[in-house]
């Protein structure tokens, strides 16, 4: 069933409340002060029942200038506007201001109702119609019906009701699949129900038993009870006036201006990027750095406006702007807002929210403007692609939902589309990276490796852990390894063991260094496991060869040609691998290993056998159990380290 909200707008004492009563039979002035003064202060609510069984909500908003804040709270949820003009007074200041507010809030359909026709003659009415035509020219009401009525005689009421029914019949259905959202306009306790909030459900649907999030505080509460137009209901839908009882919420836990929404569906922000417009007939100028009242939903807060592509904004102009908020604001992309001057209090403009999570540092650049144009005019795919690059690294679906300001269903669909278009890579389940960001990481990675190779010409490459830290310090290890695997697939880098290098990098020994390298290698081969210490090997070289010896030895260690067991024991990599295989073979037949057994298997001394076993303990391959070693995590620990390259090059598609 279609659910629609009609809202009144117009100057004070132009007969809005009386008209609503004539249409619905409901007096929306519920406060004693309102009845005494004959002026609507708070929002009033009613409904029209049509012959086909459909029901349309009606919001009666205040017309008096002092109560514009309340008018704004109601206008934000209107689908169809009734601009009210009294026949005996014609167009007045609040008529113009209310129309400007409706325009800024993006309302696109409505009718003009001329009330109190029994108080004006034909000649005066003709002038009123001319003023109305001039007022609405170029607005969403231009060319729409102008309907004369008298609420006292009921003249024209049935025609107005028919016109409303015709217009709402042509409206499209709201999308009920998106997460629900309800801006709170009233909060009160009810015995047996706890805290009750009321408002117009502007998105999605909510049912009893759902968990609601109170924003901006983030407190969670179960939905205990729902009423729609004063009647109990199991569910409520976008376009319905709704009262929700929240379980476990203390007094003061939610207030007017809060938003009740599905958990995790709405961003809360202290800054927004917007498309800002000044009303055409406003004599005010918005200057960068100026402060104003910002009205969004039922919330009012102070805001500082920083213009991006202009220095000042005059009547009828628009531009992009950063709005810094004094209080946190729950909001979504494409939400509308209104700006009012601080003093004197008057509506000057408003606009649409484009980015609820802007970068902290505002850059007045072409890139910034291009991004805002995409957010204002671009498709969902274009916005998703933009957001994926702005994140700047590996992200989850939830990350993209937040940055692009999408609901989960839309976000999932756009991720699939971008993967198909090869603009996004899936690294792991629910881990993605933009191809554009990967290309930027390629450039950065090359720069890191070029610098490293220049400073360390005798090393095969940089340790992968160090590269991860330099390239992606905020990314978890598993995801970062997948990125390195993707760079390897793209031939940007070469991965070997735990080392990364540029594909074209080669170690270039000087003749003297090559001679030292060969001598070290021969000495270690001849020694088998009973190797000399680094100091003992260094003593075999002349004083002028010491520096080259240190560089060559460090290079052999970094490149994996040497394996360090302790500060005094270094084995050739091939001898180390041989020893690993011998000990593995022992454990295939035995449950434990003694130091003496290790010494005998390797045909070495107790000193070197102990260094090797302590090394395996440190790698968690083995562990001490009394006087013997038993397997701990096993030799697969070492194998997994060797298999890093193959593992990190596996990209999930």
Structure in words:
This protein folds into four domains: 5-169, P-loop containing nucleotide triphosphate hydrolases (Rossmann fold), CATH 3.40.50.300; 181-262, Elongation Factor Tu (Ef-tu), domain 3; 267-368, Elongation Factor Tu (Ef-tu), domain 3, CATH 2.40.30.10; 511-639, Arc Repressor Mutant, subunit A, CATH 1.10.10. The chain has 653 residues and is of the alpha+beta class. It contains 21 helices and 33 strands. It is elongated, with a radius of gyration of 37 Å. Strand 11 (211-215) and strand 12 (219-228) form a beta hairpin. Residues 29-42, 63-68 and 643-653 have low confidence and may be disordered. The strands form nine sheets. Strands 7, 8, 9, 11, 12, 13, 15 and 16 form an eight-stranded antiparallel β-sheet that branches. Strands 2-3-1-4-5-6 form a six-stranded mixed β-sheet, sandwiched between helices. A six-stranded antiparallel β-barrel has the order 17-22-20-19-23-24, surrounded by four helices.
Short description:
The protein is an alpha+beta fold and 653 residues long. Helix content is 36%, strand content 27%. Strands 7, 8, 9, 11, 12, 13, 15 and 16 form an 8-stranded antiparallel β-sheet that branches. The protein has a 6-stranded mixed β-sheet with strand order 2-3-1-4-5-6, with helices on both faces. Strands 17-22-20-19-23-24 form a 6-stranded antiparallel β-barrel, surrounded by 4 helices.
Secondary structure: elements and pairs:
Blueprint: E1 5-10, H1 16-24, H2 32-37, E2 44-49, E3 55-60, H3 68-75, E4 80-86, H4 93-104, E5 110-115, H5 122-136, E6 146-148, H6 157-169, E7 181-183, E8 186-190, E9 194-200, E10 205-207, E11 211-215, E12 219-228, E13 231-233, E14 235-237, E15 241-246, E16 259-262, E17 267-278, E18 286-287, E19 290-296, E20 299-307, E21 312-313, E22 318-331, E23 336-340, E24 347-355, H7 366-377, H8 380-391, H9 397-404, H10 408-420, E25 424-428, E26 431-434, H11 435-455, E27 462-463, H12 464-471, H13 477-489, E28 494-496, E29 499-501, H14 511-527, H15 534-538, H16 546-558, E30 562-566, E31 569-572, H17 573-589, H18 595-602, H19 606-618, E32 622-625, E33 628-631, H20 636-642, H21 644-648
Parallel strand pairs: 1-3, 1-4, 4-5, 5-6
Antiparallel strand pairs: 2-3, 7-16, 8-9, 9-15, 10-14, 11-12, 11-16, 12-13, 12-15, 17-22, 17-24, 18-21, 19-20, 19-23, 20-22, 23-24, 25-26, 27-29, 28-29, 30-31, 32-33
């Amino acid at each position: 069933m279609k659910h629609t909200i009609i809202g009144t707008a117009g100057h004070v004492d132009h007969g809005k409340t009386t008209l609503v009563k004539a249409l619905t039979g409901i007096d929306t002035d519920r406060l004693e002060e309102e009845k005494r003064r004959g002026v609507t202060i708070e929002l009033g609510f009613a409904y029209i029942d049509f012959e086909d069984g459909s029901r349309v909500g009606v919001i009666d908003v205040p017309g008096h200038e002092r109560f514009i804040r309340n008018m704004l709270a109601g206008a934000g949820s209107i689908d169809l506007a009734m601009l009210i003009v009294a026949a005996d007074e014609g167009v007045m200041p609040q008529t113009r201001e209310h129309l400007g507010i409706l325009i800024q809030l993006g309302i696109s359909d409505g009718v003009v109702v001329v009330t109190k026709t029994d108080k004006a003659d034909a000649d005066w009415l003709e002038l009123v119609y001319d003023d109305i035509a001039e007022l609405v020219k170029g607005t969403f009401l231009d060319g729409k019906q102008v309907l004369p009525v008298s609420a006292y005689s009921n003249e024209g009421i049935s025609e107005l009701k028919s016109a409303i029914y015709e217009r709402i019949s042509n409206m499209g259905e709201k999308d009920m699949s998106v997460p629900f959202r309800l801006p709170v306009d009233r909060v009160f306790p009810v015995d047996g129900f706890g805290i009750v909030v009321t408002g117009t459900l502007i998105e999605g649907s909510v049912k009893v038993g759902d968990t609601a999030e109170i924003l901006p505080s983030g407190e969670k509460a179960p939905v205990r009870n729902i009423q729609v137009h004063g009647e109990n209901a199991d569910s409520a839908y976008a376009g319905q006036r709704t009262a929700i009882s929240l379980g476990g919420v203390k007094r003061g836990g939610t207030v007017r201006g809060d938003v009740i929404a599905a958990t995790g569906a709405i961003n809360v922000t202290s800054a927004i990027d917007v498309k800002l417009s000044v009303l055409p007939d406003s004599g005010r100028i918005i200057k960068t750095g100026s402060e104003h009242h910002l009205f969004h939903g039922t919330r009012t807060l102070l805001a500082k406006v920083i213009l991006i592509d202009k220095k000042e904004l005059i009547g009828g102009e628009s531009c992009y702007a950063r709005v810094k908020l004094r209080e946190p604001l729950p909001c979504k992309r494409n939400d509308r807002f209104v700006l009012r001057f601080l003093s004197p209090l008057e509506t000057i403009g408003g606009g649409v929210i484009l980015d609820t999570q802007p970068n902290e540092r505002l850059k007045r650049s072409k890139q910034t403007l291009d991004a805002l144009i995409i957010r204002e005019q671009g498709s969902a795919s274009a916005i998703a692609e933009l957001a994926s690059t702005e994140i700047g690294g590996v992200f989850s679906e939830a990350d993209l939902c937040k940055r692009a300001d999408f609901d989960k269903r839309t976000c999932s669909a756009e991720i699939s589309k971008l993967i198909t278009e090869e603009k996004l890579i899936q690294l792991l389940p629910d881990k993605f990276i933009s191809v554009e960001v990967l290309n930027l990481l390629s450039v950065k990675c090359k720069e890191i490796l070029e610098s490293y190779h220049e400073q360390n010409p005798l090393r095969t490459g940089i340790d992968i852990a160090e590269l991860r830290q330099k390239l992606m310090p905020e990314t978890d290890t598993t995801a970062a390894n997948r990125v390195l695997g993707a760079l390897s697939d793209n031939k940007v880098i070469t991965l070997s063991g735990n080392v990364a290098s540029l594909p074209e990098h080669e170690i270039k020994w000087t003749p003297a260094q090559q001679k030292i390298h060969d001598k070290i290698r021969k000495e270690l081969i001849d020694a088998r496991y009973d190797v000399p210490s680094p100091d003992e090997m260094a003593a075999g070289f002349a004083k002028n060869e010491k520096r080259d010896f240190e560089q060559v030895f460090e290079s052999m260690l970094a490149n994996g040609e040497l394996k360090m067991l302790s500060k005094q024991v270094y084995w050739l990599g091939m001898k180390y691998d041989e020893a690993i295989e011998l000990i593995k073979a022992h454990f295939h037949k035995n449950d434990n290993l003694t130091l003496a057994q290790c010494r005998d298997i390797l045909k070495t001394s107790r000193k070197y056998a102990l260094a090797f076993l302590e090394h395996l303990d440190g790698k968690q391959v083995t562990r001490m159990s009394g006087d013997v070693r038993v397997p701990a995590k096993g030799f697969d620990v070492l194998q997994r380290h060797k298999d890093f390259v193959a593992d990190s090059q596996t990209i999930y598609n």
